[in-house]
């Protein structure tokens, strides 16, 4: 799915979040498109939401570049098992941990488990998220608002707080935000608000950590074919998903993961507090 105007996606819907990648048609593209060159050789990378979507593609790409991997996920066990196998097929170790990253105590337990296994953390990718459609602000319940913020931004804080004591000079944090942080979304108001918070968090974190030699950057994808899409939107919206971009189709997770790799490795050593935009041609901040 690399050309323009590839046609409609099959109509589909999943009844609960987080979505399941194994139920999607077609399956998202997650495998790296090139051979590794050791950009993360000997590193330890932690990826939240690492079971599927952008997280899966990032885990496999980082593994191909030599990193040992820890993936954190809520409860999508089948997807997580596949991602773990894909990572291990690249010849590196993979630790998979299930649980709610909106819970600070779980984040702390997970980091302890990761450090016990690997000894340190060199790269933290905060990628877990959920979204729920609502046509008007009044339709967003208190429960939904709190849940979305807990999943999408509280987890980033909690994981960063837990990981930092185990990150040394030269480490990197990469936060996944969204194009909706810049252009908004009338039907994803709470989600967009969390993504805007991630941008501010990333910029502030970069300023706070500069003296420690730890970089913090972000990636703001546009419409990407991940399990969030059939789990969030009705079948008729899924069918047309991503067609309004300049490229004329949704992006694939494998097209976003290289941006995360760039920010995680030494190729981006002179970048901190910045956000990359793999979004199909949506011009933002210009």
Query: What is the count of helical runs?
Result: 9
The CATH homologous superfamily is named: NAD(P)-binding Rossmann-like Domain
The percent range for helix content is: 25-40%
As laid out across the biggest beta sheet, the strand order is: 3-2-1-4-5-6-7
Number of strands: 7
Q: What are the low-pLDDT stretches, counting only 5+ consecutive residues below 50?
A: 1-5
Bulk shape: globular
What fraction of the residues are assigned to beta strands by DSSP? 5-15%
Could you give the distance between the termini? Answer: 28 Å
Order of helices and strands: EHEHEHEHEHHEHHHE
* Overall CATH class: Alpha Beta
Please state the average pLDDT score. 95
Which structural class do you get from the secondary structure elements?
A: alpha/beta
Radius of gyration: 17 Å
Sheet with most strands? 7 strands, parallel
- CATH architecture group name: 3-Layer(aba) Sandwich
Count of the separate structural domains:
1
Q: What does this protein structure show overall?
A:
The chain is an alpha/beta fold. The chain has a single domain (23-273), classed as NAD(P)-binding Rossmann-like Domain (Rossmann fold), CATH 3.40.50.720. Helix content is 38%, strand content 11%. The protein has helices at residues 53-64, 77-89, 104-118, 142-163, 180-183, 189-209, 228-232, 235-239, 253-264; strands spanning 44-48, 68-73, 94-98, 123-126, 172-176, 215-219, 275-276. Strand 2 (68-73), helix 2 (77-89) and strand 3 (94-98) form a beta-alpha-beta unit. The chain is globular and about 45 Å long. Mean pLDDT is 95; it is low at 1-5.
């Amino acid at each position: 799915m690399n050309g323009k105007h590839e046609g409609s996606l099959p109509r589909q819907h999943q009844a609960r979040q987080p979505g399941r990648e194994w139920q999607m048609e077609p399956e998202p593209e997650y495998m790296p498109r090139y051979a590794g060159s050791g950009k993360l050789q000997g590193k330890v990378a932690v990826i939240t939401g690492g079971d599927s979507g952008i997280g899966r593609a990032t885990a496999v790409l980082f593994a191909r570049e030599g990193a040992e991997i820890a993936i954190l996920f809520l409860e999508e066990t089948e997807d997580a098992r596949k991602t773990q196998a894909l990572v291990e097929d690249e010849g590196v170790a993979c630790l998979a941990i299930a649980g709610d990253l909106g819970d600070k105590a779980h984040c702390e337990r997970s980091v302890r488990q990761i450090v016990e296994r690997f000894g340190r953390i060199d790269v933290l990718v905060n990628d877990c998220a959920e979204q729920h459609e609502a046509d008007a602000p009044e339709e967003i319940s208190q429960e939904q608002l709190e849940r979305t913020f807990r999943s999408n931004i509280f987890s980033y804080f909690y994981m960063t707080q837990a990981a930092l004591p185990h990150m040394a000079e030269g480490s990197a944090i990469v936060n996944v935000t969204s194009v909706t942080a810049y252009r908004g979304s009338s039907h994803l108001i709470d989600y967009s608000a969390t993504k805007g918070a991630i941008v501010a968090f990333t910029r502030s974190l970069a300023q706070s950590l500069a003296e420690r030699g730890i970089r913090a950057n972000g990636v703001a994808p546009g419409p990407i074919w991940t399990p969030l899409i059939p789990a969030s939107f009705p079948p008729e919206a899924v069918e047309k998903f991503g067609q309004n971009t300049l490229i004329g189709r949704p992006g694939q997770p494998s097209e976003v993961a290289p941006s995360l790799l760039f920010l995680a490795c030494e190729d981006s050593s002179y970048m901190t507090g910045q956000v990359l935009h793999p979004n199909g041609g949506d011009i933002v901040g210009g």
